[in-house]
Amino acid sequence: MKIETKTAHFSSPLYLESGRILEPYDITYETYGQMNEAKDNIVLVAHALSGSHHAAGLYEGDRKPGWWDGLIGPGKGIDTDKYFVIATNVIGSCFGSTGPMSPQYPSEEPYRLKFPVVTIKDMIRAQKQLLSSLGIHHVRAIVGGSMGGMQALQFAVDYPNFADRVIVLAATYATRPWTIAFNKVAMEAIRKDPRFANGNYAKGAFEEEGLDGLAIGRIAGHISYLSPRSMEEKFGRNYVATDGLFELFGRYEVERYMEYNTANFARNFDPLSYLYIVKAINTFNLSRGYDSLHDAVSRIKAHVDLISFSGDYLFFPEEMAHIARMLERGGQSHTYTEVQSDYGHDAFLVEIDKFDDHIRASLAAG
Fold it and tell me: How big is the CA angle at 280 (ends 321 and 30), to the nearest 5 degrees?
């Protein structure tokens, strides 16, 4: 599979939903496969909170492939022998696109907390600019899960003629209080960590030891991404063999798992980017800027495939079902599938075998 990674620079202003302007800005993106002459085989992939443009394949020397490698590639659900796939890194991220630790032009000093709040609308507006600069004005499909699904829905509403199909997994029409509350744990843990220093930390400050506040906040995130049943099946009440049961800080296996995974994340993800992206998720509301949610959804012209997961405790299946009912009332082309899963919200990343045929069929449909 041919993989190309590039960064596009834009000197023209990006007008944000808040009224502020981001100028200049960069977008890092990755492509897989070949665009055909008719430019009708293009699939845009949008990433979730902790993702990036590296959605598939292996970089030289790496052992871990892109975050949706099980879905994207030759012969896979999104077949790169057939489709030209573009995965972009959202603005606000820490993986190449302009974010809070990027230099604030014309200075070389990072924005830090001077970086403007960005929304899902802003993210897709920036992506639309990127695609236009590449001569792409229409795509076969937009595919995304979680925050990526929010982007796919926002594209379908704001740019109704841009995509033939929109495939949305494990997302919602507006972030609900339950999810915002989980996100609050992470935000406060980061802000209250003394080493966060109100955002005035040096670049690369946490690459070796991580930031404890981000690691603690990520534990809350992991709890919301999994489900009670998946935790029971994965860990049970198993205790770490080398820890004493009557040691105060002796650990169950589930505790060790949380420590290990969140410690790695805290070394690799910038805490300011985490705060800004979580803010974008919290503020997501498909109806903002329109008279109502019905008004927003009624703008959609693309065929919409909605895929929810029964064990999702972050964005509940009924939230996706609500979108399906609105599309049904509007007579708009769509499908709704609730995948039976005990894994939780992360099922869209790890139980690909349960929905890849659905995506394959949707992309192949007329």
Answer: 90
